[in-house]
Amino acid sequence: MESPLFLAGFERIKGFERAMAPEQMIEELKNLVDEGKVRVDEDSLQTFGKDWTKIHEPKPVAIVFPKSTEQVQSIVKFANKHNIGLVPSGGRTGLSAGAVATNGEIVVSFDYMNQILDFSPSDRTVKCQSGVITEQLQDYAEQQGLYYPVDFASAGSSQLGGNLSTNAGGIKVIRYGMSRDWVSGLKVVTGNGDILELNKDLEKNNTGYDIRHLFIGAEGTLGFITEATMKLTRQPTNLTVLVLGLSDLTNTMDVLQTFQQQIDLTAYEFFSHQAMGHVLAHGDVQAPFEGEAPYYALLEFEATSDAVMDDAMALFEKCVEEGWVVDGVISQSETQAQNLWRLREGISESIAPHTPYKNDISVVVSKVPQFLQEIDAVVTEHYPDFEIIWFGHIGDGNLHLNILKPADLAKEEFFEKCLQVNKWVFEIVEKYNGSVSAEHGVGLTKKDYLGYTRSAIEIEYMKGIKRVFDPNNIMNPGKVIDL
């Protein structure tokens, strides 16, 4: 049954030619994909029209589920013909409203483009459709005796296409880099409806512009990624986790520098005591040690030998002697390592009931302590009744600022107050030459603040690139930049 949103959506589409009735147009759309792969019922519109953000109301006109690159191409040509916007939908775990359809667009879901297509053991690459779930790729790599290192809390539901479209980072960036560092090649459908095979999986290809990197991080505004060839690496050996209680925020850098002089870390995370408190309140995990500290650091490394473990313990003792660390615990098994990781990875889930307003910001690593302290002071001064939760990938300069909604404050009023916070926060980001979005993307929530990180000239060049690949502005319109 057609939802009221379905008919109303067509009335909102800018420039829609009403020579064809909405019902006829949907019938034409149905002819482009397999039977049953177009939905207009209200449950589907609400489910697939949004991501994890709660600020914007989803108002798509239809959801379409292609199963091949050629079907995606047909949908893009259809959208150009009828001047209808297309919004990509993957695992819908985004935090910047990059996959929210707010203005009568057609949502293109990649749920059925979820096949692993090819594997090359000699190249150590795997070719995937864009709907492959991150954890699915990780598991497949493990089955081949290899490792896909890009990892984050949403790995069980996020999709590869979405990861690449936002250049997702996660918890292993300090050792393995961002998503873009693992892409050998891409197949994309541009806003013009052209199919491009980018880089052809070559390790060396010095033949002009590397267009694949324009699509990585573009949030579907230039075109849709339909396939990706991803690089794999060797499996890590005996990953060991160390959680340290820090005396002061500035000690995060002291500890990082001390350990990096002798050990190659695979992760370096931090979280505040308030953040850990929400995780502990769930009752699924215990505090790492009896004492308390204002901040905690989580270090992960490969304990490849007894000598490496001895080095780690000696470095820990040095940090204690220097007064940087008040206590610590080290994993003795894989299960213990997983439990210690839950102290960090359980934060987002534990604070979700409090409707957190999230900021995903970054600076160069050396500036993190003073940067965080300055922002925390501003937010606390203006909103002393708001609980502030800090955590993040401090080893690569990425911090997550979460402001929790008081129970007695309406959501609309809370978000309005947080928009005032944004200006102060992003002025500090600009002062430190940082980024208003380290890994979550720009979408709708950060679009108005892009100028704090990108110059006006840069933004004009971005608009020019958008016009080349998507001249009719149908690909995720309104996200990242406005034309």
From TrEMBL:
User: Gene3D superfamilies, per this entry?
Assistant: 3.30.465.10, 3.30.70.2190, 3.30.70.2740, Uridine Diphospho-n-acetylenolpyruvylglucosamine Reductase, domain 2 (3.30.43.10), Vanillyl-alcohol Oxidase, Chain A, domain 4 (1.10.45.10)
Q: Which residues form the FAD-binding PCMH-type domain?
A: 56-235
Known Pfam families for this protein? FAD-oxidase_C, FAD_binding_4
- Name the SUPFAM superfamilies for this protein: FAD-binding/transporter-associated domain-like (SSF56176), FAD-linked oxidases, C-terminal domain (SSF55103)
InterPro entries membership: FAD-bd_oxidored_4_C, FAD-bd_PCMH, FAD-bd_PCMH-like_sf, FAD-bd_PCMH_sub1, FAD-bd_PCMH_sub2, FAD-linked_Oxase-like_C, FAD-oxidored/transferase_4, Oxid_FAD_bind_N
MF-aspect GO terms: (R)-2-hydroxyglutarate dehydrogenase activity; FAD binding; metal ion binding
- What is the catalytic activity of this protein? (R)-2-hydroxyglutarate + A = 2-oxoglutarate + AH2
E.C. designation(s): 1.1.99.39
Family under the similarity heading:
Belongs to the FAD-binding oxidoreductase/transferase type 4 family.
What does the record note on quaternary structure?
A: Homodimer.
Instruction: List the protein's name.
Output: D-2-hydroxyglutarate dehydrogenase
Recorded source organism is Alkalimarinus sediminis
Question: What is the taxonomic lineage of the source species?
Answer: Bacteria, Pseudomonadati, Pseudomonadota, Gammaproteobacteria, Alteromonadales
